[in-house]
Amino acid sequence: MTNTAVQELTLADLLPISDSKDYWQHAACKGDPNHDAWFPYPSQDFDYARTICAGCPIRRECGDFASRTGQSGVWGGHEYDRGNLIRD
Ligand code: SF4
């Protein structure tokens, strides 16, 4: 019996978005000096980061990467906690 509903992700699946220099070089947040804005406290808004993400060409892929790899902070215009979306 096979379980086709569960798909194991391998590193190779993530490499196109995690390790591609070409990919991340298009990040709108690249070089942003306001590091704390990307890891807001629960009581803080993240309008600063959200506004930058809104104009980022890899926004969808970035959020997907965060959820698939357990990231925390603002990714793709949303806030994640260990890969779980906690604020839109
Ligand atoms: S979507 Fe936001 S966090 Fe992701 S790369 Fe773009 S600017 Fe950075």
TrEMBL record:
Q: Name one GO molecular function term.
A: protein-disulfide reductase [NAD(P)H] activity
Q: Which residues form the 4Fe-4S Wbl-type domain?
A: 28-85
Instruction: Please give the chief subcellular localization of this protein.
Output: cytoplasm
Q: Which GO terms describe its biological process?
A: cell redox homeostasis; negative regulation of DNA-templated transcription
Query: Which cofactors, by name?
Result: [4Fe-4S] cluster
**Gene Ontology cellular component list:** cytoplasm
Q: Which domain of life is it from?
A: Bacteria
Alphabetical list of PANTHER family matching this protein: TRANSCRIPTIONAL REGULATOR WHIB7-RELATED, TRANSCRIPTIONAL REGULATOR WHID-RELATED
Q: What is this protein called?
A: WhiB family transcriptional regulator
**Organism of derivation:** Nocardia uniformis
List the top taxonomic levels of the source: Bacteria, Bacillati, Actinomycetota, Actinomycetes, Mycobacteriales
